[in-house]
């Protein structure tokens, strides 16, 4: 038994007489006084497995009860492979593995990866491993949507003779293939963000009843919870699933958080109505939309912010799928500079409708290499970035000013704001901030990163601490170049910039003699 690596006990018996998803097989694993009870599962052909993820070293005693009775003990040895670091956990608004190693994921999206022919699945996995991406969002159930309309060879559950699916009869070949993917990615340090439900469906999975989704979740957790690289994404665009009510989502996230004894990352993605990220069991914000909202979300929830969808590089007619390579890179830089974590996607038309965002295959866009360039810079930093918050007028401050100031004593901008109807003031202020903001993050006083986005600025300034000295470099995010322009500086510094889009400035504290 190795710490942070999946451990299995296997038993042989006859096929279950009733449900094959919910069976009477449990085990308690005890190490250093901590006991964890997990459920076993039926894997087909008379095979029963109980899986455990050891998170501590030392002697582990186990007892199996139910369909099989057994007990034993194993010595859990420390993990030394420098690949398996345990589960990812929130660390304030940052992420960290259980062993203390920093985690700064760069994600990609392949929704229907596991519903493709075997050769394409293998091709996609190879492409991920050859890319800068170390987290992938993918679905358990197939996706029926534009450019994704084929019938999969296998589903997670077997069909009923009268139609529909029997959620008490898993398709073991499907789950075996899914586990192979999880193991391969995990052995290369890639996290798998599993989307458990979604609305893009023609088979009925988006309309499951509680009596159907609980056996599914029971089986899923029994099989997958012991994989350290798994995250739980309750849904993609949960608010589009009309058959699921708030009570269903409460039931689902409570069931998962109570059954998952290890504490995997858990969140829920939305289209328009954000999930309740204040819930204790929700570990992070899984966000679609405006990347400039990272800092406000961090301030509101005090949790990591993962921008899991902000458009895709591609050329399809859909508004979300025809970003230029530069625009996707631009959004990644905004997200990461503010301390968030971004997610890539690619939607280029081709003769076979094999679009990466849906089916995988090969990466063909221009953004992955430049995201890799950003990733290298982020990993050079001494810690996780946090946003540098700048003071701006708020709508409530403007309203207070209406009551207490003399209009003739104010400048033109303030007078113009005060002349607006109250309900328009906040939107105007938000628009001004979005249009003028230089996105800035910092790692304490050790490093400062400013990203100018689409501003074509030839001159700028940066505020640095008065103590210590800094080396300052200019970064071209598209050309992937870095040039040191100042050394030994501090305080307010003036910058000479290229006057083009996609420029960042990085200031790093120089080492003391």
Q: Which properties best describe this structure?
A:
alpha/beta, globular, 30 strands, 513 residues, eight-stranded parallel beta sheet
Notes on the structure:
The protein is α/β, with parallel strands linked by helices. The model has no long low-confidence stretch (mean pLDDT 95). The strands form eight sheets. Strands 17-16-15-12-11-21-19-18 form an eight-stranded parallel β-sheet.
Task: Give a summary of the structure in a few sentences.
The chain has 513 residues and is α/β, with parallel strands linked by helices. The chain is built from eleven helices and 30 strands.
Q: What is the topology?
A:
Elements: E1 7-12, E2 25-31, E3 34-39, E4 41-44, E5 47-52, E6 58-66, E7 70-76, E8 88-91, E9 94-97, E10 102-103, E11 107-109, H1 118-129, E12 135-139, E13 157-159, E14 165-170, H2 172-186, E15 191-195, H3 210-224, E16 230-233, H4 246-259, E17 266-267, E18 285-288, H5 294-301, E19 305-309, E20 313-314, H6 325-337, E21 341-344, E22 346-347, H7 356-359, H8 367-380, E23 386-387, H9 395-404, H10 412-418, H11 422-436, E24 439-443, E25 447-451, E26 459-463, E27 470-476, E28 481-489, E29 492-496, E30 503-509
Parallel strand pairs: 11-12, 11-21, 12-15, 15-16, 16-17, 18-19, 19-21, 20-22
Antiparallel strand pairs: 1-5, 2-3, 2-6, 4-5, 6-7, 8-9, 9-10, 13-14, 23-24, 24-25, 25-30, 26-29, 27-28, 27-30
Measured by DSSP, the beta-strand proportion falls in 25-35%
Alpha carbon gap, first and last residue: 46 Å
Mean pLDDT: 95
Kindly state the number of beta strands: 30
- So what's the overall shape? globular
Q: Spatial order of the strands in the main sheet?
A: 17-16-15-12-11-21-19-18
SS field, number of helical segments: 11
Major beta sheet summary = 8 strands, parallel
| Radius of gyration using CA atoms only | 25 Å
* Share of residues in helices: 10-25%
Q: Which stretches are poorly predicted, pLDDT < 50 over at least 5 residues?
A: none
Helix/strand class:
alpha/beta
